[in-house]
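Researcher: I've been going back and forth with a colleague about how Glycoside hydrolase family 2 TIM barrel-domain containing protein might be arranged in three dimensions. Neither of us has a model we trust, so I'd like an independent prediction. The organism is Pinibacter soli, in case that matters for your notes. Sequence below.
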Amino acid sequence: MHTLLQTAKELDPTRLASAALEVSYKAEGKNINLIDDPLGQYVDMVSFNEYLGWYVGTPDSCKTANWATIYNKPLFVSETGAEAKGGFISSTKAMWSEDYQAWYYKEQIAMLKRMPANFSGISPWILADFRSPRRNNPTYQQGWNTKGLIDRNGKKKKAFFLLKEYYSEMEKMYP
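Model: Here is an independent structure prediction for Glycoside hydrolase family 2 TIM barrel-domain containing protein. You can compare it with whatever you and your colleague have in mind.
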């Protein structure tokens, strides 16, 4: 990966380069998730994928999650999200519902507001649901990745509006 980053910089020294770096969860027995991947020294921005509340735990696990990096570079969440079948309205505890996805992002946003000073942003996975043959849950996926903020019919899910509000707040803070 280091060689690939060097080659990319040689081809275009103006383009920022990053990668989804590894995280040491609960580093050294502390309540810190530390981004200390050795590749971090070669990237322009320290990025990591984070799915607290989807692949592990529930969204409220974000309440106790703390993040740090050993690199003095911008810190960016390169991927995060929870699946929701468009139109499936239930309780916040019902995985695959728009309500669960909204809860997921509500907790994510609260966590992001506690990020270190070098935190620079988030990229939800993904804007719109898309076809994916590897998504085979017959009830909720049916061949679709449903982590989108917009469903397969173009309707905005509940989480879309939470993130829209969050981004509007950020725009006011950093015009």
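Researcher: What would you highlight for our discussion?
Model: I'd start with this: The chain has one domain: 2-173. After that, consider the following. The CA atoms of residues 52 and 59 lie 6 Å apart.
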